[in-house]
Structures are given as C-alpha cells and as structure tokens.
Amino acid sequence: MKITAEQFQKLAPRDNHWVAGMRRGIEREALRVTPTGELAQTPHPAALGQAVTHGAITTDYSESLLEFITPLCETPEDAERFLQDVQRETLKAMGDELLWANSMPCLLPENEADIPLAQYGNSDIGRLKTIYREGLAWRYGRRMQTIAGVHYNWSLPEAAWQDITGIADGQEARNRGYFLTLRGFRRHYWLLMWLFGASPALDRSFFGDTDRNGATRLTSGAASLRMSDLGYHNKAQQTLGICFNALDSYADSLSRAVMQPWDDYQTLGVRDGDHWRQLSNKLLQIENEYYSVVRPKQLQEPGERPVKALRDRGVNWLEVRCMDVDPWAGAGISTSTMRFLDCFLTACALGQNPRISETECEQLEENQQRIASAGRTHGQRIWVDGAEVKLTDAADSVLKRCRAVAEQLDLHEGGSAHVAAVEEAMEHLSMPKGLPSARAERKIQKMGYLEWVLSRSEKLKKDLLAGETSPERLAELAQLRDGSIQAEAALPRSASAAEFDAFVRDYVNQPTGLND
C-alpha cells in the first residue's frame, strides 16, 4: 500500500525500517589555483595517484579542476569527515596551491587555450575521456567548463520504494519511485538554488575580457550565476526536450540526443587529420554531456553507456547537480545542508507529483532563470501549478512539508538536527539577508570577487591543514592511490591508430535500446 506524506508523519520510528537505509554521497569540485588566485597550470599531482582510476580523487573537465568523491555514507558527518580528510591530504600534495572556494572560477588565462584539458594517460579509455573534453571545448568553450559545483547523490533502499509506490517488484518500484521523486524535485529545485546559491558574482576574465581581468561583475540579487545563462547553458541543448516523467521516456529522449546529428558539429568535423576534435557530430557526444539539474543514476560496467545501464538495471540513486560550493564550509557543503537535502528529497518522494507537461516544463525552466539571476529581488514571483505566485508563499508551502519529514527523521535518529536544518531555512523567508548569496554579495561589494574568494580559499586551507587525518584514513587513501596506479597500468591500450579508431567507434555506437 502506498505511503502518503500524511501517513509518513504518523509513523513511529520503529516502523520506518527503510529510513535507516537512506544513503548519501558527495562529489565536490574545486579548481586548483596559485597563491595569487590564477588558474594553476601544473599537472595533476602525481602523489595523488591516477585520476582516471582513482575512486576518491579525480579531475573533471580541466587538469586544474579537481573532483573529490565520497563513498556512500550513513550520516552527513561521515561524508563531511571524508571530504575534509581527502582535501587535507590533497592540499599537502599541492604545495603552495589553493582550492578555490567558490563555484564561479578564479582569474582565468587571457587565452582560452591555456585552460588545460584533463589528461588521463595513454590508455584507450583515458584518451577517450580527453577527446570528449576536447569536444566540449569546441562546443561550449573552455571557460564555462571551469565552473565548479557540489553533486549530492541520494538513495533509499528498495524496500522504501516498494512501500512508497505499492509495487512489489523491486526494480519497477525503484524506477517508479525515483521518477516520482524526480518530478517533485524538478518542480521545487528552485528552492535549493534560492537557499544555497552562493555565486552572485564572477571575475570578468570569465568572458575573455582581457582589458578588465581582475574586475568584478556582480549581479545584485542573484542567487547562483552558476545556474544562470552565464553558467551551464547551451542553446543546442534547449532543443533536447528530455522527459523526466518515466524511465522509458527519459532513456528514449536521451538516446535520440546521442544519435541526432547537429549541423554545427557536423561542420566542425570529428577529426582534423590525425587530431580528434570530438567523439561524434551528434547533439550529445555521450549522455553525460546533457547539463541537467538532476540525473537518475545506475552503476555502469566498464565501457557501458549510462543509458544502457539504466535500461538494463533501473535507477539506483539520484544525483542532485544544482548545488553551489559553500564558501564557508571546509567540505564545500555543510552537514546542515545535507540534512536539509535529505528532508527535501524525502518530501519529494512522498508528494503527489503528476506528470509534467511541456508548458509546465517551460515554466520550471523560467523559474530557474528567475531565481539564479534575481532570486533575492523584492517581490520575486515564480510559477506554481500554472500560476505566478510570490516566492515566499511557495517556499513556505514546500518548507512546511520538509519540516514534517524532518520531525520523523529526528524521531528515528534522535536529537533535532533535521528540524534545525529546516527551521534555519525557514528563517530566511523573513530575513533573506542571511542567505549565502546575500552574505557573499556584501563581502564582494567590500572586497571585490577575486579578493574575497582568495581570502576564503586561504582560510579554508589553513583550517583544513590545522586538522589531523586519522591513521585509518591515511591507510585508506594510500590504498586508493596505489590501487589507482595499478588499475591504470592494466587498462587496455590500442597498438595502432586504426585499433583506437575502432575502440572509439564501438563506444560511441553502442546500442542505446531505442526502438524507433
């Protein structure tokens, strides 16, 4: 029998057998920068191991853009501790370099070509990963790819989805339950941007404005320029029409995107002689190129495409991708924010979330732009159920549902940490000056963007290095490092250019499961 939000509020802690199985994992991105706030041009520190096979320390788009990945964690404290430890040990390997403490980038090179692509060695998969980034450079420019974020990976055990959906089959229950949650998330994620956005400004070097490098561009009232048209945005992707109503429609629409040729990319060409420009001339080279605020996820087998993993084994977790780096948190995200996300996502799972029409989808995208660029504008309104309403009224409604969930999570866990996290968010409705974006704006107005973020980066490095990493964690990280080196050495390597061409062709042309 399906559990409603009202029934959930009445459950005793002993009945929430699936609450204990809730898990979260974090992917935190951070640019390596020089002591003066410029993008680091040094290679990935060798002492960290091999980025292509490391389970906790890798790189994202650029060789200078680190990504720290936690394991699945039972508590927010576990995730925070892991991130602090892994960043502390990384900083030790970086010498005098810093980890940039904001989502929008540091002082970027005048020549965009001087933003280095991530390098993953000469294995077939390593070369493919770099070619994919070369394609991103041609398609969107390198500057956009230096933006950093925090991804929150969240899951409930299969039994929870069986309870929530009333479906006995485990995989079908997971698929239905996660897409039910996705629909609720897409309707309400504007609230996460408003509450936790922390990027109201950037340096003008982001635009290649060589005459004004080091000058701040501040958008007063903005919550997250990272999520605005200045950040992850692409006109070609606006034509995708990715459907989040169900797994089949989601997988089909994503499959079409990796099969659909695009005129500009056909003109660019896949190769220029022996030099690869991109993996394909399709609208998306691979599924991960789609800049979504949230993704349904499943573990992939080596060489397997994401959409095939989803079709074959269903959804296993959700990846929330709309969170800015918290400039005040050593881990890039606080435990309070993690608890709020757990409440928010659980509330989405328990909500009544009908399918999203094309018209509503357009309205939800409009909500994103309003919040990202002008979320703190007095009297801001957003779309809810086809009508424009006051942001504060809509936020109050969602936060009340989150608080009801928080009470039950605290009953299970003990204490009042979840309720405190939601109440802290509710306080911002009457006092928006306390929002991270508002606090950042005031600091930037006084100091300038580069100066303020550089000071935060220095403070976070000092605080992290003042702590200690346990012997157990050091041993764990050493094992991950050594394992990454051994695993990279064992990766297949083509003996000829023709053999590598075949490898890329086979990877790009994998069956997607689309029947039409």
Automatic annotation (TrEMBL):
Any Gene Ontology CC annotation: cytosol
Reaction catalysis annotation: L-cysteine + L-glutamate + ATP = gamma-L-glutamyl-L-cysteine + ADP + phosphate + H(+)
Coiled coil: none
GO MF, any single term: metal ion binding
Principal EC category: ligase
Keywords: ATP-binding, Glutathione biosynthesis, Ligase, Nucleotide-binding
EC number in record: 6.3.2.2
Pfam families assigned: Glu_cys_ligase
Domain Glutamate--cysteine ligase: 16-371
GO-annotated biological processes: glutathione biosynthetic process
Pathway where it operates: Sulfur metabolism; glutathione biosynthesis; glutathione from L-cysteine and L-glutamate: step 1/2
Family listed: Belongs to the glutamate--cysteine ligase type 1 family. Type 1 subfamily.
Protein name according to UniProt: Glutamate--cysteine ligase
Organism: Litorivicinus lipolyticus
